[in-house]
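Exam revision sheet. Question 4 asks you to relate a sequence to its structure. Input first:
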Amino acid sequence: MAQAGKREGNSARPSGGRTSKPRNDARVSGSSPEVKPSTVALSSKLESRRGPVKVQLNTWVLASTEARLKWLVKNRQFTVTSVVDVALQELLDRYDVPPADPDGRIREQ
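Answer key, structure tokens:
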């Protein structure tokens, strides 16, 4: 049944707003956080790993291409990054584009 009368104000929310719970994990200013030895070991392992330099590439593709890419990623356990990189490398090789060094520079020939 339709609501009789006019609703006052802009909010559809009942008055009173949200209540916030006090946080128990608040840090005391001036104190140093504890660092566990396992965390330090893990951080050193992560920092020492260096792969090839990567740059962000944004582009638009056909919806059908996206569907096929999603299928490949889901069913063959590839990543979007690896699929795009391999496909572009094959295209660039086919058209004899000179290779670039690890920092992304192409030497003039």
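Marking note for examiners. The mean pLDDT is 73.
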